[in-house]
Amino acid sequence: MAVVGEALRVRVDEHRARRNLRDQVARLELELQHTLVSAFPRTGLDVSLAPRRAAGPRVLSLGELEDLRDRLSIKLAQARAQLAERADREEHNRRLLERMLLEPGRYRFVRIANADLGEGGCGVWHVRPRLGLIGMLCGWWQVKLSSGCPLAG
Prior knowledge:
By secondary structure, the chain is mainly alpha-helical. It is 55% helix and 9% strand. It has two domains: 2-43 and 61-87; 103-145, no CATH class. A three-stranded antiparallel beta sheet has the order 1-2-3.
């Protein structure tokens, strides 16, 4: 009788462990989705998991669920780090643009694309002399925003 009770307890513990792992995987997938959504409109954030095997629909073992949870956790950490790095770079570029607008003569011929600021569009901010060669010789500099994407050819 003790063997039957022990087998039942093992089955219940495995069921509880499986449910717990599925909940953890669901939470990690949701956090990964939120990270991807918070990155919008930025592109290039990789949140995909490489599939282990194409064995078709099946119930994952405890080891496979743990492996999936671990891979999701690593992918989430990588996506958050990538997003934080990109946000830091965009903030640096915004501050550089502010300084360019305040003192264009100190930032001659510097160019910053809208994409580097985390904004959409094809515009590019650049410091140019006001009247070409004469403005360059006289020290007359200005910041201009290009009109955007060129027309398709």
